[in-house]
Amino acid sequence: MDPCSGEGIALEMLSDTLREQGGNVKSYAVELEESRYEEAKQVLDHVIHDGYENLRTQPMFSLLWLNPPYQDGVRFVSRQPVQ
What we know:
The protein has 2 helices and 2 strands. The chain has 83 residues and is α+β, with helices and mostly antiparallel strands. The protein has a domain at 9-54. Strand 1, helix 2 (34-43) and strand 2 form a beta-alpha-beta unit. The protein is globular, with a radius of gyration of 15 Å. The N and C termini lie far apart (43 Å).
């Protein structure tokens, strides 16, 4: 389960690796942004088009992939130690 899947690439890679090792894997994901949701639908088993904050689940997942959501154009500022 990835509540912020983006295009689903990270969860797809993880799912494929687990399947190659004999795992019975079904991928579940949530993505808010429309074009990323459409991409994720092509590579994952189940994708919901909504925000993670609206997600409610049953206790059925054995792995939760927490890949934080990133927005286009976000700038990160390097923090320098205070002297």
